[in-house]
């Protein structure tokens, strides 16, 4: 064992050295900081072997490793089950303290509890900090201490609290207090069973004109009217504090979207069941049709509804889908086809580069009408009207559906008027059942 007492800083979903809350505190503490990262085999084993997100993580870990090398330290990168890796780390390093930023997903909470207990049994303190969101846990609650389940009052208090609090980005001129560790090799993707994906990921630079015009352009999927930063917020390659600072100075509508993100993280933390179950249990009695062939056509973008198909093909080809179109395809799956929102959420979880449990289950339950502050169940998006409004010249559709308006394009999988009525009837029967 190395005799020098050190602090271990554990990167999880915060891949940056600047404005990183827990790293800032670790560097100010007594011992030199040894940074670590783990490719978690419990998570990786469930992913397809060609997963662009794993390539992204690998790319960003390599970048971090280089940035750390410039500061004279080595990023210690491991592959395996976190609890076992921690046992190894404790036998290899003389660990004084451990630092990490908080993660609010159910799996992460369980993992961290086990690590906390392991460290406690060695009398090592595990310090966790808020970094992923502006406000966490019960920082924004009603006067009676209960969480908000409606966005508007939540966002009002969020904004009020922001004025009262010191949420500024952490200064980057922190003491360079790194450990002087030896070189280690980052496990390569194939050793972990993955194929590298050659693709270019969205830039992590904030496009200021996009933010400034956000309120006018954000609903047009054919143009770059949104920031495309979701992947970077997901993995912490951009800091939410820096982005919120830009939003406050430039565009309130954009700020509201960042608040939606905090809101859904808070909902998942207070109600972890939303990842798997209807937030409103009165919807538990809906009898979903769950037709596998129709679901497959939806996945492939072959429903005969051009805006739906364009969205699904964008997702399949790029790992991204515009927010307006996410709402349309989710409404179509749950209402027109009456497929359980969990099927759609699982498909998104597999395909989205920016997949995030809180926003994904939030978005799906919003569309299905089963969630917090959801679209009412009788609001069934009309894909044709949505197209007229948001893609009137069919630019977006033509980009993704090459055979649009040709005989090769499939007939609609279901007739709109009939499907709408069927959804209303099915939801109503389910709700009546709940009351009875
Ligand atoms: P912008 O419009 O530029 O917004 C800036 C940031 O605000 C986003 O990057 C995101 O972090 C946040 N944001 C924006 N809209 C929302 C929203 N409605 N809810 C929560 N946060 C929001 N977002 C994810 O990050 N991961 C998901 O897995 C995810 N799944 C979704 C599933 C469905 C069915 C729906 C309807 C929405 C989902 N969203 C998800 C929210 C939203 O669609 C994406 O955040 C957005 O499209 C990302 O593009 P952008 O970075 O250009 O967003």
How would you describe what is shown here?
This protein is of the alpha/beta class. It has 19 helices and 5 strands. It has helices spanning 21-28, 41-44, 52-70, 82-92, 106-121, 151-164, 208-212, 214-217, 230-235, 240-250, 252-270, 292-300, 306-318, 323-336, 341-351, 357-368, 383-390, 395-400, 416-435, and strands at 5-11, 33-40, 76-80, 94-101, 125-129. It has a 5-stranded parallel beta sheet with strand order 3-2-1-4-5, sandwiched between helices. α6 (151-164) crosses α11 (252-270) and α14 packs across α16. The relative contact order is 0.11. Bound molecules: flavin-adenine dinucleotide. Flavin-adenine dinucleotide binds next to α9, α11, α14 and α16.
Describe the secondary-structure layout.
Elements: E1 5-11, H1 21-28, E2 33-40, H2 41-44, H3 52-70, E3 76-80, H4 82-92, E4 94-101, H5 106-121, E5 125-129, H6 151-164, H7 208-212, H8 214-217, H9 230-235, H10 240-250, H11 252-270, H12 292-300, H13 306-318, H14 323-336, H15 341-351, H16 357-368, H17 383-390, H18 395-400, H19 416-435
Parallel strand pairs: 1-2, 1-4, 2-3, 4-5
Helix pairs in contact: 4-5, 6-11, 10-11, 11-16, 13-14, 14-16, 15-16
Flavin-adenine dinucleotide (FAD) binds at residues 218, 226-230, 233-234, 257-258, 260-261, 264, 323, 326-327, 330, 348, 352, 354-356, 359-360, 362-364, 367.
Structure keywords:
436 residues, five-stranded parallel sheet, 19 helices, 5 strands, 48% helix, binds flavin-adenine dinucleotide
